[in-house]
Write a structure and sequence with these properties.
Blueprint: H1 5-25, H2 56-66, E1 70-74, E2 88-93, E3 99-104
Parallel strand pairs: 1-2
Antiparallel strand pairs: 2-3
Length: about 100
């Protein structure tokens, strides 16, 4: 049995759509950190972090203690936009991967 040419084209198009959906579903990442409270950042008690290594455990602790909804590590060569957000903690890191400052900005 032979299918009409238009049917074959639409079938190939459908297969392409399905294949594309499968590829995109593989790109789904895990959700970000869960924020408790209102997400407002407070850097009053974060002075302990200066001089500490900027590893995952330290950044998670900073996130938890600051209450920030977003933690933004800033490397020495990172360009920073000077906008202000009440939910963002910027962690400044030097070339030796040590924290030089942690500020709500």
């Amino acid at each position: 049995m032979t299918f009409p040419r238009s049917f074959r084209r639409s079938s190939l198009r459908g297969l392409g759509v399905i294949a594309g959906a499968l590829v995109l579903s593989a790109c789904v990442s895990t959700p970000g950190p869960q924020v408790t409270g209102d997400g407002r950042c407070s850097d009053a008690t974060l002075g302990w972090a200066v001089g500490q290594p900027a590893d995952e455990a330290t950044l998670k602790r900073l996130s938890r203690e600051s209450g920030a909804g977003l933690v933004n590590p800033i490397a020495p060569s990172t360009a920073v936009r000077h906008d202000t957000r009440t939910d963002r903690l910027r962690v400044y890191i030097d070339a030796q991967n040590r924290i030089t400052a942690a500020r709500c900005e």
